[in-house]
């Protein structure tokens, strides 16, 4: 069984890259290959110019934070953190200094002599972090480190980890299944499904110009509009759908007449008010009150149900025909 | 607080009494000043312990039992621990078969194993003239216990600590020495102590494999009980009990008896 | 690399294969050899040993007696042990650890000592008869007969019944019993229809364990039977220690083991219907 296929990735120094995807997509396997905990059946892994594919994990000068933290239960916080230093030949006063420094950085001063079982989840997490960075590794790897924390703590730790990473300037690979997490923290995101990379790009890129339907659906909400290409020129395609015609952006050449799907986010759609020139009409099938907005499910002529949101004041009633306007700059053709 | 019917609780108390009475009664018997195994004892005396110390047969059997048990404990642990490590950490295919093989000595009737080894050593080796067959027999039946306690300790280790150590620069041997071993030490020691007790108390294997003219303590006691009935046997039993119960107590201190699961 | 790793397991594997599996295969081989009063075995192979065992009423009677003892011991252990196992599994008393140790520690005290204790208790002037005497009863012959042997067998093997059942009951969610009660089942009915079937795997383990152990018991019938009680193991071991004719002894041992195996398998098959959806 192939867990990961054809992964080709370049990470720049000091960059924060997320591996994002649902469970089982191969992101953790990829990370573990980089860490040297698993051996790839083919391909190479390079740290800079150095080929580390055959290099054992302990020689790769990396720091890794595991989802379960994997703190040594029989060692104090100090010993846990000092372990990596000791392995790399830093002992005595030198080590003590660096341990104190890193404890300061993660705001755990005073807890050096505690054992992991006497720490809270958030504290354990920070010890795991301190332990990974204290030896100044060339690469920081994190495997869903925030998965076991409650929501509020997770929020705080996201910013904390990101700012720490930026301060230290460490190249970082971060595995997560939480799309908002990767959007907040990353310089670039690698979206994976079923062992393959679907898209690599910065958060804005991924959100507004998803490469595939899976990516579009995984990050935020997406409305899928099917139709036939009328013409495509200069990065803009004109699509003829059963309910009307619209344009969308595209990054690849498409032949006229081909059947395609375009995606448009709910916030790029507006329910038109009589006077507005609208793009098409549809029938309201459901309306939900979400607090700040109303969410409308609208059926189009070909049966597609799309999701549109409207603010409280201007919201049409829960039934009947409505006109919908697309912000066609935001529509995007999917691969 | 769970409520149990009073009747049930009385019944259970009765069962516990049933379990402990024969063992407990041996102790006051050993202090009996009188000649016979009557209860209550007719006065208190340590004469039977003196009788034990004066009996060359009993004392040599005791020493032999302790020596054998010690050797068995160490050897069984040394053999079973790497096997357990291999099984838990590296084995991919054929796990069930391996586990069954490791536990086989525990699952087969000891008398049958004893007979099998009696034949084996007499046919293919040099017979039971030395203590070697006895020690080997004990090792065979105690390996499963050490295997179980060490695999249990390995499963109870927090996930990923060995890998974490490796990402921090520790090679395989150092990771084992500094992380794995300290965390499974109690499992190994508990297994060793169980092996000690099982070997010390063992009758079935010792009976058929012991060299002619020698004896282990349980066998010596067994022989004694078939013909003589005086409180010497009680003194011997109490001494044996004290030794094994001390070891059990030590297990409980280190690992907790709760962890002993079959 | 993998080869180097296998060397971890090699000593243990070697020991078990060489000193357990091979000897067992050898017993089977042995049972087909000709017995000899002067050597381990005489040349040639035969099935006479088996014929003798299976047609001689002496040995068949011995087999029957042994199996009856095992059956009696198992039944009594089950009846006596189940409530204890249930209590141990469900109690939240702070003495629970001690109670558990209480069931476990007899196993660690050596069978000879336990038998000795029973000899003291069951003798004609032993504690039990003395107590009965206070009530004007007895003295009864409780030793050197099947009664004493059975009592001691039950005593020694009781923990082996209690522990697996305790484990099985522990893994049964107590809320299942509560659910049954909310559906209208009375306490006892909920017990019989819900708890009992679900703890069957543990009961099965305990029954098989105790049956096999008590069928192959040697020390207990020897000491508590005082020469008056003969079972297959006592006869076999006496013979092996006292004389040669080892192939015949091997056959006796194997016939007993096979009978036990057949009965255990039968039990397993009969139980399968109850265990459907549980194991």
From the structure above, extract its key features:
heterotrimer; A: 335 residues; alpha+beta; Rossmann fold; OB fold (Dihydrolipoamide Acetyltransferase, E2P); 2 domains; six-stranded mixed beta sheet; five-stranded antiparallel beta sheet; 8 helices; elongated; B: 262 residues; mainly alpha; MetI-like fold; 0% strand
Describe the protein.
The complex is a heterotrimer of chains A (335), B (262) and C (279). With 335 residues, chain A is an alpha+beta fold. Chain A has helices spanning 27-35, 77-87, 92-105, 121-133, 151-168, 179-185, 203-208, 213-218, and strands at 16-20, 46-47, 50-51, 62-65, 139-143, 171-176, 188-193, 196-201, 223-233, 236-241, 244-249, 259-264, 269-272, 280-289, 293-299, 305-311, 321-326, 332-333. Chain A has eight helices and 18 strands. In chain A, helix 2 packs parallel to helix 4. Chain B has 262 residues and is mainly α. The model of chain B has no long low-confidence stretch (mean pLDDT 87). A two-stranded antiparallel ribbon of chain C has the order 1-2. In chain C, a hairpin with a 7-residue loop joins strand 1 (33-34) and strand 2 (42-45). Chain C is globular. Chains A and B meet through strand 4 and helix 2 of A and helix 7 and helix 8 of B.
